[in-house]
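Summary for the steering committee. The consortium agreed at its last meeting that each partner would contribute one worked example illustrating the joint modelling workflow. Our contribution is presented below. We chose a case with several input lines so that the handling of multiple components could be demonstrated. No manual editing was applied between input and output; the record is shown as generated.
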Amino acid sequence: MDRVALDRVATIRDVAARAGVSIATVSRVLNGSGNATPETMEKVRAAASDLSFRPSTIGRNLKAARTRTVGVLVPSLTNPVFAESVAGIQDAAAEVGYSVLIASTDYDPARESRAIEGLLSNRVEGLVLTVADADRSGSLDTLDEVRLPYVLAYNQPERAPRAHVSVDNVAASRAVVERMAALGHRRIGMIAGRFRQSDRSRRRHAGWQAALADAGLPPGPVVEVDFNELRLAHRLTPHFEGPERPTALFASNDMLALATIRALRDLGLRVPDDVSVCGFDGIEVGRLMAPSLATLVQPARAMGATAFECLRTGFSGELQGRAVMMPFTLRPGESLGAAPSEST
Amino acid sequence: MDRVALDRVATIRDVAARAGVSIATVSRVLNGSGNATPETMEKVRAAASDLSFRPSTIGRNLKAARTRTVGVLVPSLTNPVFAESVAGIQDAAAEVGYSVLIASTDYDPARESRAIEGLLSNRVEGLVLTVADADRSGSLDTLDEVRLPYVLAYNQPERAPRAHVSVDNVAASRAVVERMAALGHRRIGMIAGRFRQSDRSRRRHAGWQAALADAGLPPGPVVEVDFNELRLAHRLTPHFEGPERPTALFASNDMLALATIRALRDLGLRVPDDVSVCGFDGIEVGRLMAPSLATLVQPARAMGATAFECLRTGFSGELQGRAVMMPFTLRPGESLGAAPSEST
DNA sequence: GTGAAGAATGGAAACGTTTCCATCCGCCCT
DNA sequence: AGGGCGGATGGAAACGTTTCCATTCTTCAC
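What follows is the complete predicted structure of the assembly.
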């Protein structure tokens, strides 16, 4: 019977006492560094197991002056595209024994900087993050100041030479518009997140514009909406009154695409018979709904994993300005069909 | 010009040196504990700001022997219902200055226990977690052993008296079936996660069964599927061949419901004209798709927040066996309509 | 003028690890 | 048989905080 029923977590000192050795020996045995007699190893392991000893990450990190932890900052975990990339980061991190500290901002700058402060205090060794606008972000400036390595995910800065992993948003958007044009659409509109607040939205808009110009088509209506605005009917109505209404809409992300389809149906328009819709992101639920969502697929999970990998390998080298372009694919879907015949 | 361009993170000692005071004073000033001359405070604050000093959480936690951190364990971040509850936990935690450490298991027991070990090593003060089966879970046994407080979310243990926050799954399922019966459905099937692996699935199945019995209806077909199985057509085919095919299907969660609708369409059946479908969870995308998804809504975000609150307030008291039942609502949707007339 | 009280501040210990260095011991080689 | 070598182990310092305790100094009452 154990006389000592100490009701606190066992420390290395407790293990050492029980095994009758020094803490140095315990540390060595448990970490497999240094040599030890088989009997010693046995004693130590038995003691550790008896006390269900779990080395404190805190003590370890303090001594080691490194945490083997990276921070992740995303606008929202409830947007599947971010959840997916976080999962990719976690996978890649776990593989090499790294932990992940996750923070979300809900698109709120105040929460963003608080989150960054928190991650910094936790001494993360680097960050993978997605910000609203990579060209003007106080958080990124902070990171530059303290020289903490970071890799942007999804963001594609236009001016600042910041390391990022993304798709070529302009080329990707062009692919969407070209596909629409090939299907006979001539009046192609865009539903986009606020340009002021999103470099992605700007890039995707640029691609849309360029593709239309190349195809000799006039730019259709552009509707800018806020992140959390999911009731879009009243925003679309004005553009669907005349005979010149668009036959296809390109949404700058999938959540927006879903909201758009919903709104079109509320307006009594059929998708894709009256209006086609294509999204951007490639979230999984898009495949499950009816009509299934046509979308430009970014490899979210792989992007997360790649971003982490860049961060890790770049820890020693120079991360500045490096960019990785991920491949994208256009996933066909029932929401994107041929232009209505009466309009050709 | 600063002569000292030390390229490492500033410590309290650096601040003390620069301000010309002791580290004790720095600590007191920055934490607002104890008294200090206005000039001293000014000097300290200036030095801290000059060096962009951020107190190390690691050092702080080690000394304080508490981390103000809770762990969260979910099967998957990419399932919106979990993402949503995690968001709720984060919100509630942030409000009282707690941090959140997130781990996901991907339904893999090995990953689960590794994740728990990790959280334990990080000295979380408690856990909010969702496991496959709360009645037989090695991870939970571990937590009981080390006496670390935890609250289950979504799980509703049948035997073990474990603290949990959930809806009354049986009553909720009954509500779904009763609604279906009221709409004239007589042959009501169920698509469920593996009973072996999920207490939720079992409870929901029990509610389905009980409601059918009460309504004097024969149990329709039950299809058990794996978590990540999203192609269901071949699983449904056998049950839709005879004239006795079900007119309504109750899916034990929303992802399953989406997959079911998809599969039905692949089989050439219309939803809801030929077959109605109702899910369970209340994920947001359900509202956006067409047909919109009828579903039993759990207040995911509030559940997360509540679970955290229980954990926090229970830290001192006794958590054992406490349960909080959250209110549920039945969200109507286009996927659930009246039974086809020819079948009445 | 003396003493006490209290404010301001500093010294030092402690938290749980890892790791450098020193010590001790047994063994092999000559 | 003696010297040296190397393996096993322990002591102690260090990481960055907070906080207890002690010290100094100011101020005020007698």
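Residues 1-5 of chain A have pLDDT under 50 and may be disordered. Residues 68-166+300-325 of chain A form a domain with the Rossmann fold fold (CATH 3.40.50.2300).
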